[in-house]
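User: Teach me something about this protein's shape.
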Amino acid sequence: MKIDTAHLKSEIAAITADLIATRHYLHAHPEPSGFEADTAAFVATQLATLGLDSLRTGVGGHGVIAELRGDQPGPTVALRADMDALPILEQNQVDYCSTRPGVMHACGHDGHTTILLGAARILSQHLDAISGTIRFIVQPAEENVAGALKMCADGALDGVDAIFGLHGWPDLEVGQIGILKGPMMAAVDDFDIEIGGRGGHAAYPHRTVDPIVVGARIVDALQGLVSREIDPFDHAVVSVTKFVAGTTNNVIPSTALLSGTIRTLSGETRIRLVRRFHETVHGIATAAGATAIINHLPGPPPVINDDAATDRVGNVGAEAVGDENVIVLDHPSMGGEDFAVYLERIPGSFFRLGLGDVTNLHTPTFDFTDGALPVGVEMMCRLALG
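Assistant: First, the predicted structure itself:
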């Protein structure tokens, strides 16, 4: 039995005040990646009150999983939310501001978790409308891109046929969703480079191997990897974001440290660009008589949405918010997201939920839009029901 659209919206409207209260509580009590014990306990308590099946805690760290088995046979569909916060000092002036200085929900995971809890609450009242099983996955450690892999190792996807997730997005209006087939977000490869030279007096540079000069050459050369070695119709980014060297103005140091990130949208481009990165860094250092030690920190693969699953998001979105508010995105984001780990294993789709006029993600003044919560809950409910 399908839930009537007007009835579904009415049920969600009836719990919207509770959703806002939940989101504000989570926003006020953020926990960074790997330390989500209190958040996980709160989530588990909320799910336990709904009488869901197979409630598991401690999955992949602090992850929480629960299931809702419908009255009719069918596939198992997973809905995923993330719950960790960022090491940022909040600057918002709201009564639910972070109570933990230096940690805040600057990426909207408080909203994501609230939406999943809301969807579980609504769906738990409609077992007769569910064919198959709905698995609710609340994941820790998305921000340090370690959570999804550990969740999978602990069986989060065992028996799951498809998975869906969302992310609040400032560039879309409230009541809009953004979809994209294929590559949606980038693979992430972070790096640290330690350049070893030979220090000395700044007045006698010919007696040194200056790691600052070597580092500058490396920074300049890395920019050419994308502009001259990657197809212009492909997408890639190499950014050096940190350069640390020296202690005073008359001493050439013996070492320099560089850090940065490589972003790509395909496995083939990722392999090639990472290889050329290593060759370029070592080549320049060797030519200058210096050494380079690279600490390569591979992150998640690209988020690649399944075509059929993305069509499902679009069709569900048309029912929830209208055709005109289902926005097919022009291009992927070069940001990373470890939802990609799930999509490597099973079909699924990751979509954007409009937040309207808010500041950018990962800033000290970001705040998830409460008005987007009912839209997210409806989307998740409809995706679960098929």
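Now, about its shape. The longest helix spans residues 5-28. The mean pLDDT is 96. If you'd like, I can walk through any region in more detail.
User: That's plenty for now, thanks!
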